């Protein structure tokens, strides 16, 4: 499918045309920048032709309006959809959304959260809609990827009324972090859902993202793209007490302080240039301001890497991207220096020799280092084109409702656990068969003990598994006194420990989780519904008393599976689910996706 992607910023318009078949080829790349009186700079290129110069457009609107003519001149036709990068989707947009009057009004309503970016994005949408009224227009949001961040990462400890007004951490650069984390996982040869990755995007704007087992868990940008790292012209982290201090000492207004933190801070304030190349040249020439700027820049990134490794309880890979992350070997070295204690060591020759042509993602860690270090070019527009194609490929109506099964707390035991709890050589007694073929509830029960309490007579589900796994609800985890993470079955690295008691003894084990909701489905049923293993869908439950839409429900395709959604007791109670309840897949593009409440 041919997709035109717009990335309209406050001072530039970038656009690209992609063929999102198997190869995801970029057919055309264009930009208009440095708008000034009556003109701007342009650059257009394809594989075989590259042109740059000045164009007679003095603002963004004129530049967007010129795009159809440019594409016609370059022989680019056959567009099937348009994707728009939208900076802020708030808590409302957890997935790409079809842009229509309702969704545009919602995006407009989010303008106070992104006063520079959202209006420019919307302008591009309005012009594109008038030029290509027949094409679907899809918004892809920089914030969506981070909506999986847990509340402890998104909440500021501020008065409730402020939080109710929308003051929370959102995080940005989501499309880039998602792309590079997946590209790194591909390079490593493991699914992203099995890896703990820190994505370090260092461009004019810069942010770090903790990608824990495939989901964004924390990101250094917050309510706005101002929090976190030192950037080209933005300060990153500053004590909020600065506002009072500057107001009293220098008589500055909130607007003046805010403008300076956005536009006159960062590298520009420290070293006189927002461009890292200049700063590095000046530092090399002995300028102490530039040397401090570089040290501070690297130190801040290093602190976040340490923090996010701790937050995830481990680290498999660090990925560098963005203009600085991709091109500055010396900055990568400064950031990584001193992290040897956590198994992160660079190979300096590989670091110097990085080549990123053709979406390469070279590994530059030292031989034997525990943590991989990868460099790759970010490809936000490509990622947007892919997400547009995926969103449009999803069927808009789905045939059958999905039966919903409620899983009460239970354990899966390893042979070692069975021996410890019931005695060597003991075999569990299969009792009631479950709907998934070959699975049963055992007649035996166990007790689960945590630091605060015990859960008695917990069901054991057979057959035995390689690893012991204890699945409880969030409410159960409070009773135990342990903060159990939400995980897919089998993803047990770093999960908390509990003690199990059986008639023959006790067994201490990790593996305590709140099971992520999922749908078991057979290959044929999945195909009929246009779903694939690993997809996430939204499922709407309606009932006489309560109803709920469950977002991010994982599709698990297994031969012979009985199609059924599995949720836990907390989820069932919240949705008012009774025996025999059914859910309905929310069609196609999630126009009004609901934020996961984690
Ligand atoms: P944006 O966030 O606007 O997309 P980029 O990702 O293009 O920005 O990153 C721009 C930054 O990358 C600038 O600070 C620029 O100096 C820096 N950069 C580009 N090439 C190099 C290089 N070879 N060495 C150091 N910094 C570089």
Q: Strand fraction band? A: 25-35%
Superfamily (CATH H level) name of the largest domain: ATPase, nucleotide binding domain
| Fraction of residues in helix | 25-40%
Q: Got a strand count?
A: 28
Integer count of domains: 4
Q: Mean pLDDT score, rounded?
A: 91
Q: In DSSP terms, counting alpha (H) and pi (I) runs of 4 or more, how many helices? A: 19
Q: Report the CATH topology name of the largest domain.
A: Nucleotidyltransferase, domain 5
Q: Biggest β-sheet, characterized?
A: 9 strands, mixed
CATH class of the largest domain: Alpha Beta
- Please tell me what the overall shape is: globular
> Segments where pLDDT lies below 50 for 5+ residues?
589-598
The radius of gyration over CA amounts to 26 Å
**Distance, first to last CA:** 35 Å
Bound molecules: adenosine-5'-diphosphate
Description:
By secondary structure, the chain is of the alpha/beta class. The chain folds into 4 domains: 1-141, Nucleotidyltransferase, domain 5 (2-Layer Sandwich); 169-384, ATPase, nucleotide binding domain (Nucleotidyltransferase, domain 5, 2-Layer Sandwich); 393-403 and 517-591, Barwin-like endoglucanases (Beta Barrel); 407-515, no CATH class. Helix content is 30%, strand content 27%. The protein has 19 helices and 28 strands. Strands 15, 16, 17, 18, 19, 20, 21, 22 and 23 form a 9-stranded mixed beta sheet that branches. Strands 5-4-3-2-1-6-8-7 form an 8-stranded mixed beta sheet, with helices on both faces. Strands 14-27-24-26-25-28 form a 6-stranded mixed β-barrel. β17 (440-449) and β18 (454-462) form a beta hairpin. α1 crosses α3, α10 (276-284) crosses α11 and α11 (288-312) crosses α13. The chain starts with a strand and ends in a 13-residue tail after the last strand. The relative contact order is 0.09.
């Amino acid at each position: 499918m041919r997709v035109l992607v717009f990335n309209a910023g406050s001072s530039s318009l970038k656009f690209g045309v992609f063929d999102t078949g198997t190869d995801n080829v970029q057919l055309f790349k264009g930009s208009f920048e440095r708008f000034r009186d009556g003109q701007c700079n342009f650059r257009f290129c394809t594989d075989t032709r590259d042109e740059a110069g000045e164009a007679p457009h003095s603002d963004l609107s004129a530049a967007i309006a010129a795009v159809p003519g440019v594409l016609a001149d370059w022989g680019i036709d056959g567009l099937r959809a348009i994707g728009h990068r939208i900076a802020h989707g708030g808590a409302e947009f957890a997935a790409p959304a079809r842009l229509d009057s309702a969704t545009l009004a919602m995006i407009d309503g989010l303008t106070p959260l992104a006063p520079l970016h959202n209006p420019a994005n919307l302008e591009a949408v309005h012009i594109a809609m008038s030029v290509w009224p027949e094409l679907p227009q899809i918004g892809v949001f920089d914030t969506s990827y981070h909506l999986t961040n847990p509340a402890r990462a998104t909440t500021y400890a501020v008065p409730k009324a402020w939080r109710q007004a929308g003051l929370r951490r959102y995080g940005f650069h989501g499309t880039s972090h998602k792309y590079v984390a997946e590209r790194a996982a591909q390079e490593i040869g493991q699914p992203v859902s099995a890896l703990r990755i820190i994505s370090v995007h260092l461009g004019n704007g810069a942010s770090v993202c903790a990608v824990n087992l495939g989901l964004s868990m924390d990101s250094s940008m917050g309510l706005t793209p101002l929090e976190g790292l030192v950037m080209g012209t933005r300060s990153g982290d500053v004590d909020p007490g600065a506002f009072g201090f500057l107001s009293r000492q220098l008589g500055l207004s909130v607007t003046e302080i805010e403008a300076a933190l956005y536009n006159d801070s960062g590298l520009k304030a420290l070293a006189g240039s927002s461009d890292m190349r200049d700063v590095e040249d000046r530092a090399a020439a002995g300028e102490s301001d530039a040397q401090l700027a570089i040290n501070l820049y690297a130190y801040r990134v290093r602190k976040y890497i340490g923090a996010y490794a701790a937050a995830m309880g481990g680290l498999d890979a660090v990925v560098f991207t963005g203009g600085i992350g991709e091109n500055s070997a010396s900055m990568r070295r400064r950031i990584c220096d001193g992290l040897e204690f956590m198994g992160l060591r660079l190979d300096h020759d590989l670091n110097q020799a990085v080549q990123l042509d053709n979406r390469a993602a070279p590994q530059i860690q030292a031989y034997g280092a525990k943590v991989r270090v990868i460099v790759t070019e970010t490809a936000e527009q490509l990622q947007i084109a892919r997400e547009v194609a995926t969103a449009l490929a999803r069927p808009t109506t789905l045939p059958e409702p999905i039966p919903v099964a409620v899983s009460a707390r239970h354990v899966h035991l390893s042979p070692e656990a069975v021996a410890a709890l019931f005695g060597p050589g003991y075999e569990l007694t299969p009792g009631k068969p479950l709907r998934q073929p070959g699975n049963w509830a055992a007649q035996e029960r166990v007790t689960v003990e945590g630091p605060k309490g015990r859960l008695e007579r917990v069901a054991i589900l057979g057959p035995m598994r390689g690893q012991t796994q204890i699945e409880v609800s969030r409410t159960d985890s409070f009773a135990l006194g342990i903060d159990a993470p939400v995980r897919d079955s089998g993803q047990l690295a770093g999960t908390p420990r509990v003690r199990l008691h059986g008639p023959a003894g006790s067994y201490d084990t990790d593996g305590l989780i709140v099971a992520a909701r999922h749908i078991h489905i057979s290959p044929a049923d999945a195909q009929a519904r246009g779903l694939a293993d690993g997809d996430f869908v939204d499922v709407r439950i309606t009932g006489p008393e309560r109803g709920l839409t469950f977002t991010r429900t994982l599709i698990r395709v297994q031969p012979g599976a009985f199609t059924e959604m599995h949720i836990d007791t907390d989820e069932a109670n919240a949705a008012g689910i009774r025996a025999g309840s059914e859910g309905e897949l929310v069609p196609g593009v999630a126009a009004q996706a609901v934020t996961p409440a984690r």
